[in-house]
Design a protein that fits this description.
The chain has 235 residues and is of the alpha+beta class. The chain contains six helices and nine strands. The strands form three sheets. The chain has a five-stranded antiparallel sheet, with helices on one face. A two-stranded antiparallel sheet has the order 1-2. InterPro entries: Bud32, Kinase-like_dom_sf, Prot_kinase_dom, Tyr_kinase_AS. One of its GO terms (biological process) is tRNA processing.
Length: 235
Amino acid sequence: MEARQRGGTVALEGLEELGEPQYKGAEAYVYIVEWLGKKAVLKLRVPKTYRHYLLDKRLRWRRTINEARTVLAALELGVNAPAIYYVNPVAGVIVMEYIDAPSLYEIIEAKPEAAKEYARRLGEAVGILHETGISHGDLTTSNVLVKDGEVYLIDFGLASLKSSEREQAVDVHLYMRSLESTHPEHVDSLLEAFLEGYSSTRGSSWTEKIMQLVREIRLMGRYREERRTAWRQEE
């Protein structure tokens, strides 16, 4: 796949010849490509045959635009994220900076003590986003990269520019859940560090308000799981 300059605009060539994706998600495929001489990430929202053609086209257009706008908004706020090189909402394509760095997940695996500072910085970054109404939507340790002592947020595919308090609480819940599922022994220390950073940008009273919502979300999740278990036992 190549990118070429034509009449002041960039045209995609060989989109159908991208080969195997680096990652396959429910909504999009991610490829590592060369873009104007640079290594880059190409995210392609794939058509869904189970949806009506026009509805699918509209959804992919809207979600592509929303993701690009959210990344740009984060960058304007000083939150580290991949630079956007190119957006084609009709094709459902975003080309962005390739960041060669380990994920926070990998840092926790290798250096759990060092991960505390990155968790704190992540909390600061998320607090800045939430302050202006942006929620990430998929805040896991795999969607945070660490480079040169800084944290970078990636994969804004489920992000919202006008999020509710509950959506912001879901961000914190997802971060906690990702720790619980992959590094349960470090949940307490890495949550404490995250909340320290978050509180530094949002204040302690707001942080407590968000954590109260997080507790409600988690209680509801446990209730649903208990009901599912009970139903299975009754069958």
